[in-house]
Here is the input.
Amino acid sequence: MALSPEESGRLADLLDEHADGLVARWAELVGAGLQGRMSRPELERQTRDLQKGFQQAFANGARDLSDEEATELRAQLGELSSNRARQGFSANETAISMFAFKDAVLGVLGDTSDVQTLRDFVSFSTFVDRAALFTFDSYVRVREALIADQAEQLLELSTPVVKLWEGVVAVPLVGTLDSARAQVVMERLLQTLVDTGSPYAIIDITGVPAVDTQVAQHILKTVVAARLMGADCIISGIRPQIAQTIVALGIEFGDIATKSSLADALRYVLGKKSYRVVTAKRTEH
Amino acid sequence: MSEESRQIPVTTDQDVVRVRQLVRTVAVDAKLSLVDQTKLVTAASELARNTLVYGGGGTVEVSRVRNEIRAGIRIVFADQGPGIADLDLALTDGYTTGGGLGLGLSGARRLVDDFTIDTAPGEGTTISITKWCR
Here is the structure.
């Protein structure tokens, strides 16, 4: 239900006339809902801007939130919800703070039986509802963008390739190894092999909770790819329960060296490189 | 006799992860040994992925069961996909139509105590597996 031009005109006048009272009351209502998580001056500044935004939109003759005249207001609402989303407020709190505007306006109108005033208020109320839904929408959009960013960061974070020794790199895998992560792991490992010129790579699966055929296939492919580049791969961190499961599943690692711990794998590689690990004899001075 | 059961839909890769987590939680609650937990979780992972990849999505139901002697966990994977035409072939180690290792179905059968499969071409596939507490 869109506002009539007269209605938006009257609303603009109303908001203008009671500007200070409305802002104070609105900020008070919102402040009570946010329970001191936002400072009062900041809140008042925000509500003043918003109240001005609504007033401007009505004064320009906006009849609906999607109108061109309300572009400025929409931008304001979008910014408000993205700020709230980043500050950790819930979508509910963000929308409720919009609804509080209605209470503030109702307070200004007071007890009235004037039909026109009541009609105006109903139209205004619909407009605010739309605005609240709009903030809800933008809030969710911002949150989704945040989550997508974090998921990407997590993917990057969770697949480090570390240098263990001269010529030995290791990939400690933690968590679920799905196709996307397997791809990242493989790319990282192969690139690190080139960059460091390492002839040995250790893939440690201590942190992988379950090794099913898909995980095994991803690991096998990574090993084969590394071999094609001339590097030897060792799989370490095979716990007893994983070993038994792999046997029951019938997965064969062929001639790929496997070790139960990363330490064993490193010792094995050092042995191949003709290093010997011995306890140093301390000479007392 | 079924004591409690939970059903989850499987329509994305994320759901396969969810199935794994649910099965692990139930397996820990049922006091399965660590090896049996891992075997059951792995079997569930294989079959849930089959439901998704070959069955085009379906449902997984995890329930605690009990017979005269023992308690256990039963998991039922159901889809309305194309079904399996040649079951013997599908259960052969190394046979795959999807580019995998060809060990999922046959391997899962070796990982659990009871394994029943109900399928016909064009009528979907229902697989029920049970692991008993030792």
Notes: Residues 216 and 251 of chain A are 8 Å apart (CA to CA). The domain at 5-153 of chain A is CATH 1.10.490.10 (Globin-like). Chain A has a mean pLDDT of 87. The radius of gyration of chain A is 32 Å.
